[in-house]
Amino acid sequence: MKFFVDTAEIDAITELNDLGMVDGVTTNPSLIMKSGRDIIEVTKEICELISGPVSAEVVATDAKNMIAEGRKLAKIASNIAVKLPLTWDGLKACKVLSDEGKMINVTLCFSANQALLAAKAGATFISPFIGRLDDVNLDGMDLINEIRQIYDNFGYETQILAASIRTVNHVTQSALIGADVITAPPSVIKSLIDHPLTDRGLDQFMADWAKTGQKIL
Ligand code: G3P
Q1: 186 pLDDT tier (thresholds 50, 70, 90)
Q2: With the CA atoms of 72, 17, 123 and 42 taken in that order, what torsion angle do they form, in degrees rounded to the nearest 10?
Q3: What pTM value is reported for the model?
Q4: Domains in the chain: ranges and CATH
């Protein structure tokens, strides 16, 4: 399973990339706002750092301007995935831009039918938002399951990019279901390593080692 990091913070991307944990990056207008950076400048910097797909989202809401913005964003680097919202205009832009050979990430997906439409429009990635479904007392993982089954039934190559991941359990469940990619904030990716028994076991080994009086180096 691929790990994308859901941030526009260069330091956080660099830290995880140095550990080999970054297969791509996703951004959105809220993350660009949080970074305080210019969208073109920061996206270019991320693309220079990461060779995998870097999602950059359009902000127009009509197909004509989405296509124009998508073409401009795609010029930043060859690894840009143009991110488009799951509306009819977004799908129209998806069809045009994917026919031009651009990678497309269709975002704000909250139903299996929406995911089906995105696959038919040629999306490279579909981004179902798990956490935001949980927020309204639905189960975001059910949606990942449904999309996996539908895409497998018909052999759609659109990759399931599990998004709006808030917990380490979302990552485990996405991996078990077979989502192709997860995108998560750096804090969640860093939390994946946590286990109290690892900490306790290491403390015990270190205490016993100290009693031997030996050194390896
Ligand atoms: O990739 C989409 C993601 O950024 C949304 O996450 O936590 O704002 O629902 P969240």
Answers
A1: very high
A2: -20
A3: 0.96
A4: 2-212 (3.20.20.70)
